[in-house]
Amino acid sequence: MTELERACESFRILMEEQQARIAKMQAEKVDFSKKDTVTIGLVDGDGIGPLIMNQAVKVLETLLADEIAAGKIILKRIEGLTIENRLAKNQPVPTEVLAEIKTCDVLLKGPTTTPMGGKMESANVTLRRELDLYANVRPVSIPGEGIDWMFYRENTEGEYVLGSRGVELPGMAVDFKVTTDAGTRRIARAAFDYARQNGKNRVSIVTKANIMKKTDGKFTAICHEVAAEYPEISVDDWYIDIMTANLVNPAIRNQFQVMVMPNLYGDIITDEAAQIQGGVGTAGSANIGDRYAMFEAIHGSAPRMLEEGLGDYANPSSILKAEAMLLRHICRGAAAEKLENALENCKTVVTGDRSGATGAQFTEDLMMLL
Ligand code: NAD
Question: Is the pTM of this model over 0.85?
Answer without folding.
Answer: yes
